[in-house]
Known about the structure:
The protein is of the alpha/beta class. Helices cover about 30% and strands about 20% of the residues. The chain has one domain (about 5-260): 3-Layer(aba) Sandwich (Rossmann fold), CATH 3.40.50.1820. The chain has helices spanning about 40-45, 75-85, 100-110, 130-140, 155-160, 170-180, 210-215, 250-260, and strands at about 5-10, 15-20, 25-30, 50-55, 90-95, 115-120, 195-205, 235-245. The chain has an eight-stranded mixed beta sheet with strand order 1-2-4-3-5-6-7-8, with helices on both faces. A hairpin with a 2-residue loop joins β1 and β2.
Amino acid sequence: MSPSKTGYAKVNGLNLYYEIHGAGDSLILLHGGLGSMGMFGPVLSKLAEHRQVIAVDLQAHGRTADVDRPLSFDSMADDIGALAKDLGIQKADIAGDSLGGGVALRTAIRHPNVVKRLVVISTPFKRDGWYPEILAGQAQLGPQAAEFMKETPMYQQYASIAPNPEDWPVLLTKLGALLAQDYDWSKDLAKIEAPTMLVFGDADAVQTVHAVEFFRLLGGGQRDGGWDGSGISNARLAILPGLTHYNIFSSPALASTMESFLESTGG
């Protein structure tokens, strides 16, 4: 599907690239680390059949050039809040995968007036929600990994669209620094006003027990939902079978799961 509009929003000193696909209620869609909006593939097209999808390339990713500031979840969340204002969007659904899920989550916490519904995909609410081997892998991100990772599809995609492909080592350095920081957003989860869906694969890089804890902190899984559904909270949890951290973002199962939640009228 070709976008109906592409552009750069000048927000917080950044030229933030976005594309608009489809028409209807707005959904802001955020990709994972070292990726770009293109990683969603057919999921983006499917979601755009019934709504206006605003796909974004985050700082230093895809077609958005880097600027002289660290990568941080909060600064990127502020970029999304500013983007919504720039586009004249009063309230939008927001969904993000992995790094983008953290940005979406922080947007809902820092800019609750912008977020109608929230979908967090394959993302922990604190750093030790990742499996230990994933944390060990994240610790390897940095300039020393730049040449090795040029052999990966992630670099090939980056080099084909980045305004400054030579910034690849800088992106790895900044992302490595971000992922090395400890964080725990558990106390902030109570601030989320928007109905929220959590989506994970059953073979995800995020521990399944952590996904359940996340769900409970949002108010889910506290009691029986009841015959009439009166015991169902505003939180939803989906564990998609046979999916990993590395293919969930392009799975048709993700699109159908998200659509069911976004089109629901309840909490």
